[in-house]
């Protein structure tokens, strides 16, 4: 019997396993030298003038970045409705309000024109989300932010190693960029995230707030050869630090980011060729010279498809292939809908995309036989 092909699996090698074992044997399991090494490697990956702060999730990273930039009660933060709830919920953590706008129907990314129209005197920041690993129109977004004096925090959960106009996401003119290393992402630490910023004050604040608002890291205090027990709580912080065990994975996953992206791109091209004559829309490509991370491969069923989206996913599961949907737009969820009195039709492009979107498996542990199974299943259902 053929085994079920899951939607995603992490790609962990001996290098990661050995590094984790080394951490376990070291006697230091929480934030320490391995985390520092991962941060330094990541900062160098993005650019020499950047600081990287490791955290236990991208949600934590977004929260800390917004807090460090002074977002608070009464403020508004513009973001897309077509994202995971974490992008917006961190705004509510700070007592501010997310303002949702619609997407560009071709890319699933936030529409800069809609951003400009949504700005009010309360607007303080923009959170663009690089959906599926394809860069938003960052030139337009940064121009809008500059015109209105707004902060920009990029949600790059899908976007390693995505580029925009030839520059790596994270190295642009934003105030901060936040990555995710969740188990399904392009590189993984199991759970984890990274904040990248070139602003030393933002970096300092994020470091303090990620561990209870304490002025000194536990590693510095507990490994000192001299009495070093004293510390000061300077703010009501959070428990958002990354462990050395997680960082041990990240150190080696980061080295593979380029090869992982190459494999994902090859898989996306294979899908494109196989599906080009089926009743579906293929995912958008990066512009010439840019890199698409291909975290997700999202097709959209067209009106002449033989089945609706939900039935398509059921039939794929019956054929032993796991699929998913990214995302259920936030304005359709009870909390966001009811709090802000939103209607399903308020964001027509997001709604239209959601009703037809299916995410197919695309991960580096898949082999040619696995991908052929996906292709065969899709063709059998839609041909």
Give structural notes:
The protein has 2 domains: 14-255, Type I PLP-dependent aspartate aminotransferase-like (Major domain) (Aspartate Aminotransferase, domain 2), CATH 3.40.640; 257-382, Aspartate Aminotransferase, domain 1 (Alpha-Beta Complex), CATH 3.90.1150. It has a 7-stranded mixed β-sheet, sandwiched between helices. Strands 10-11-12 form a 3-stranded antiparallel β-sheet. It has 14 helices and 12 strands. The model has no long low-confidence stretch (mean pLDDT 96). Helix 1 (14-26) runs antiparallel to helix 9 (244-255), helix 3 crosses helix 4 and helix 3 crosses helix 7. The chain has 383 residues and is of the alpha/beta class. A hairpin with a 2-residue loop joins strand 6 (163-164) and strand 7 (167-168). The two termini are 25 Å apart.
List keywords for this structure.
single chain; 383 residues; alpha/beta; Aspartate Aminotransferase, domain 2; Aspartate Aminotransferase, domain 1; 2 domains; seven-stranded mixed beta sheet; three-stranded antiparallel beta sheet; 39% helix
């Amino acid at each position: 019997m053929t085994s079920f092909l899951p939607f995603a699996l992490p790609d962990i090698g001996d290098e990661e396993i050995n590094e984790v074992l080394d951490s376990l044997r070291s006697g230091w399991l929480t934030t320490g030298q391995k985390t520092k090494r991962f941060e330094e490697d990541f900062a160098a990956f993005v650019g020499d003038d950047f600081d990287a702060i490791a955290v236990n999730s991208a949600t934590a990273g977004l929260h800390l970045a917004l807090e460090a930039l002074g977002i608070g009660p009464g403020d508004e933060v513009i973001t897309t409705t077509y994202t995971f709830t974490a992008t917006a919920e961190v705004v509510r953590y700070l007592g501010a309000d997310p303002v949702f706008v619609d997407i560009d129907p071709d890319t699933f990314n936030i529409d800069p024109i809609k951003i400009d129209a949504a700005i009010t005197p309360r607007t303080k920041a923009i959170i663009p989300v690089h959906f599926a690993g394809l860069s938003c129109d960052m030139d337009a977004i940064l121009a809008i932010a500059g015109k209105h004096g707004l902060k920009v925090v990029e949600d790059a959960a899908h976007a390693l190693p995505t580029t925009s106009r030839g520059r790596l996401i994270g190295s642009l003119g934003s105030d901060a960029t936040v990555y995710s290393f969740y188990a399904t992402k392009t590189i993984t630490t199991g759970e984890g995230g990274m904040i990248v910023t070139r602003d030393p004050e933002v970096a300092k604040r994020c470091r303090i707030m990620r561990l209870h608002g304490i002025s000194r890291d536990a590693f510095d205090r507990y490994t000192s050869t001299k009495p070093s027990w004293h510390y000061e709580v300077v703010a009501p912080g959070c428990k958002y630090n990354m462990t050395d065990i997680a960082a041990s994975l990240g150190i080696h996953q980061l080295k593979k980011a380029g090869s992982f992206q190459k494999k994902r791109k090859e898989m996306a091209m294979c899908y494109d060729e196989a599906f080009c004559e089926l009743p579906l829309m293929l995912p958008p490509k990066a512009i010439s010279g840019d890199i698409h991370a291909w975290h997700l491969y999202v097709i959209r069923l067209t009106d002449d498809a033989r089945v609706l989206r939900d039935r398509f996913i059921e039939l794929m599961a019956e054929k032993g292939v796991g699929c998913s949907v990214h995302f259920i737009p936030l304005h359709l969820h009870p909390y966001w809908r009811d709090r802000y009195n939103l209607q399903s039709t308020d964001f027509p492009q997001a709604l239209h995309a959601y009703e037809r979107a299916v995410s197919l498996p695309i991960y580096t542990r898949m082999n040619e036989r696995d991908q052929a199974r996906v292709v065969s299943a899709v063709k059998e259902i839609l041909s």
